[in-house]
């Protein structure tokens, strides 16, 4: 213990590990909703009350108010990634654009990118019109480069974005001084800035949206685990919900369904959040706006300055648990907490005496080709959306809206986007997928160290090997 009563471990005296996420600690726990009272019938049954399912319910009810919609949730609305993420309402699209282009061409991908940028403003517009206060501020995002190899990837990123239709209004390269004028990051050599991103408090967003759809007449039953999904019904121990349309919106929890263990791999991501920054520290960090912050490391990070002046920063912990196992209510391992805390202090030396107050983790859905999917089969009435690979806060809105149009049998610009109806091969069986993921991230971590310590001018060959392993 230090003379001022602070712990010397870097963790606050009231430090919390898990308990879902800091976002709920800050926003307050939601009131419990009742469990499914028994078997019933509906027009649409949505399995999973995260953002994908909630957005699908919102647009279905908005377009056809008489629909009987039932949502089933094992824990509570927003328990998964929807309430644990980094709060990036960004236009970043998961996966390989070449994979999307293979079926819909270059113009199809450009249309998808435009739709993603539009979805950022769509979410902001809905929160305003529906009275959801989620601390949203649209100040854009900076991806900083902190060594020569990262600067090379920054320049490659700009060329890549321009090849897919981006203009100077979409991406701007900042010098080190220009980047530091916004956020003072140690050893920042430059940054790529895009305005298509807003800061969000995730728990406030998902809980606000849940209240809105309930007000529209959607029934949300919590503490109700779905054990199987079949055409026309969702099966639970409390009874079955029979509906001609059943939408699986489980994202990283998809592996809990029978036959889905190898569909979308539940990848783990972890976060820490500091105590509120003292004015003297905040002045040194210089983070006056609400810009989001990322980087060009292979073991990437993502961060925001919260509305109450904390730094919330995330990255990979244990990337994957054997057999597609899940975490326990967000608890993460100590070495991850230490690593993320060290990264906060490495990027922002002024925070050396600022304590970490909360750490947590969550799962995100990763398809074998790392590319998202929206799918609805009219014959069976079964639909799904997910595979956002960590870029889901905006993507859930676009995917949920698209699912709604598909269910309503509408031919729209959304239903023609290239992620609709995609088929992806399954992940390898164990132990191959566990070994592959562990090898991939070990290579990425080693590549980052070499690029940083050896001053490599280009991307490490180890990272290129990791990319081949992943199929990215």
Automatic annotation (TrEMBL):
Pfam family, any one: DAO
Record InterPro entries: FAD-dep_OxRdtase (IPR006076), FAD/NAD-bd_sf (IPR036188)
Enzyme Commission designation: 1.-.-.-
Domain of life: Bacteria
Keywords on record: Oxidoreductase
GO molecular function: oxidoreductase activity
Residue ranges annotated for the FAD dependent oxidoreductase domain, each copy included: 43-406
Gene3D superfamilies, A to Z: D-Amino Acid Oxidase, subunit A, domain 2 (3.30.9.10), FAD/NAD(P)-binding domain (3.50.50.60)
Protein name: NAD(P)/FAD-dependent oxidoreductase
């Amino acid at each position: 213990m230090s003379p001022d009563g602070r712990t010397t471990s870097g963790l606050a005296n009231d430090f919390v590990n898990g308990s879902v996420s800091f976002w709920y600690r800050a926003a307050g726990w939601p009131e419990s909703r009742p469990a499914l009272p028994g078997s019933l019938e509906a027009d649409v049954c949505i399995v999973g009350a995260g953002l994908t399912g909630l957005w699908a319910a919102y647009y279905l009810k908005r377009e056809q108010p008489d629909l009987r919609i039932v949502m089933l949730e094992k824990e509570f609305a927003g328990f998964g990634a929807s309430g644990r993420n980094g709060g990036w309402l960004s236009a970043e699209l998961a996966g390989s654009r070449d994979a999307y282009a293979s079926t819909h061409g270059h113009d199809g991908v450009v249309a998808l990118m435009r739709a993603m940028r539009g979805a950022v403003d769509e979410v902001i517009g809905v929160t305003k019109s529906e009275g959801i206060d989620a601390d949203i501020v649209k100040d854009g995002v900076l991806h900083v480069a902190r060594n020569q190899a990262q600067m090379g990837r920054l320049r490659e990123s700009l060329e890549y974005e321009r090849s897919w239709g981006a203009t100077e209004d979409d991406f701007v390269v900042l010098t080190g001084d220009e980047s530091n004028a916004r956020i003072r990051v140690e050893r920042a050599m430059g940054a790529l800035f895009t305005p298509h991103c807003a800061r969000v408090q995730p728990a406030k967003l998902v809980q606000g949206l849940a209240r809105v759809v309930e007000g529209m007449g959607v029934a949300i039953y919590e503490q109700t685990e779905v054990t199987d999904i079949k055409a026309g019904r969702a099966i639970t121990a409390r009874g079955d919900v029979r509906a001609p349309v059943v939408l699986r919106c489980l994202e990283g929890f998809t592996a809990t369904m029978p036959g889905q263990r190898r569909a979308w791999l539940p990848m783990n991501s972890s976060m820490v959040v500091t105590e509120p920054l003292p004015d003297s520290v905040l002045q040194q960090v210089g983070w006056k706006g609400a810009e989001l912050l990322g980087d060009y490391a292979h073991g990437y990070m993502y961060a925001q300055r919260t509305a109450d002046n904390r730094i919330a920063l995330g990255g990979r912990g244990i990337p994957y648990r054997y057999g597609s196992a899940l975490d326990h209510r967000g608890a993460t391992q100590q070495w991850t907490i230490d690593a993320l805390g060290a990264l906060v202090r490495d990027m922002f030396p002024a925070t050396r005496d600022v304590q970490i107050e909360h750490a947590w983790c969550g799962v995100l859905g990763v398809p074998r080709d790392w590319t998202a999917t929206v799918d609805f089969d009219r014959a069976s009435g079964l639909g799904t959306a997910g595979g956002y690979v960590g870029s889901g806060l905006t993507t859930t809105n676009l995917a949920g809206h698209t699912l709604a149009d598909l269910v309503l049998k509408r031919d729209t610009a959304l239903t023609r986007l290239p992620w609709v109806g995609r088929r992806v091969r399954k992940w390898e069986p164990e132990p191959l997928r566990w070994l592959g993921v562990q090898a991939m991230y070990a290579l990425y971590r080693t590549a980052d160290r070499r690029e940083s310590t050896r001053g490599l001018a280009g991307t490490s060959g180890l990272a290129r090997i990791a990319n081949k392993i992943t199929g990215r």
